[in-house]
Amino acid sequence: MHIDFRNSKAEKVISLNGNDVKIKAICKGSDLTEEVAYNLIERTIEIKTGKTKFYNYKDVIQLPYYNKALEALISAIESKGYHWENPLGVSTEEIRQRHGDASEMFKEWLEYENKTFNPSKCLIFEIL
Questions:
Q1: pLDDT, tens digit, 9 for 90 and up, residues 4-34
Q2: 69 vs 87: CA distance, rounded Å
Q3: Is 6 left (phi over 0), alpha (psi -120 to 50) or beta?
Q4: How many CA atoms are closer than 13 Å to the CA of 38, on its beta-carbon side?
Q5: Distance in angstroms (rounded) separating the CA atoms of residues 113 and 37
Q6: What's the pLDDT score for residue 127?
Q7: What percent of the chain has pLDDT over 70?
């Protein structure tokens, strides 16, 4: 499927969980900016200060709002069981050198990596 990110009106229909869904390309993950995130998430205006606050999806009790849209987007991703960065924070090569391919740590790293947002390998779409 060819995606044209220059044409903001370009829409495609894809199959998602067995249902046909209309989507619109937003940007490549590597092009994700504060401005793009601003348009993707919920926000509110503080009445006294007039500042924009962004909803915290991950921890609504401790810190219900963020000052930056990208932080709120990260919390939305993490609230769904995905990771912004691999929680083990080490490279595949480091694990292989220390523990080998068959180690439990390597398997755990791969499991986390499969659920880690990687801007260089992803595309961001809006479900219409």
A1: 555 556 788 888 788 888 888 888 888 989 8
A2: 22
A3: alpha
A4: 8
A5: 23
A6: 81
A7: 80
